[in-house]
Write a structure and sequence with these properties.
By secondary structure, the protein is α+β, with helices and mostly antiparallel strands. It is built from seven helices and five strands. A five-stranded mixed sheet has the order 2-1-5-3-4, with helices on both faces. Strand 1 (about 15-20) and strand 2 form a beta hairpin. The structure holds FE2/S2 (inorganic) cluster (2 copies).
Length: about 170
Amino acid sequence: MSSFDETLLDETDETVRIRLVVNGRKIACEVAPRETLVDCLRDKLELTGTHAGCEMGACGACLVQIDGRAAHSCLIFAVQADGARIETIEGLTESGVIADLQAEFHRRNALQCGFCTPGMLVNAQELLSQATQPSREDIRDALSGNYCRCTGYEAIIDAIDAVAKARRESGGAT
Ligand code: FES
Ligand code: FES
């Protein structure tokens, strides 16, 4: 007779109901206990602007804001985000809060395939909300966890640097 415990199968199938505020909208969804937040955002909520790259916290493609701070959505189970306020690249775009960064990335060709770009923008916004006068070295440091396979980074740093200066001249960070 097999010693396999069939109740384990039931546990695998279990889902948990979570509530989130995503891009200003209250949502509830059923997630598996081991489902990551990035998978929940992309697969359940169809917010595919958040990308899944390495899925181990190294590439920055999955960055979103959780309760106002940039965080890797691949390193968080969706159940751990229960009750949180999440802003994805879609929400940040809708609100216009990163419009200057997006325009500057576009103007300077700071993207090619665009896979890394949502994470770059979330991280740039995080940096500029924390430091009003980042040096180019500060910007490089801040982006050290964001991998780009295409651009060589220089145009990205130029774009963030230009926005930092523009925000400073116009009286503060967005
Ligand atoms: S997918 Fe999360 S850091 Fe790479
Ligand atoms: S633009 Fe292609 S990975 Fe950055």
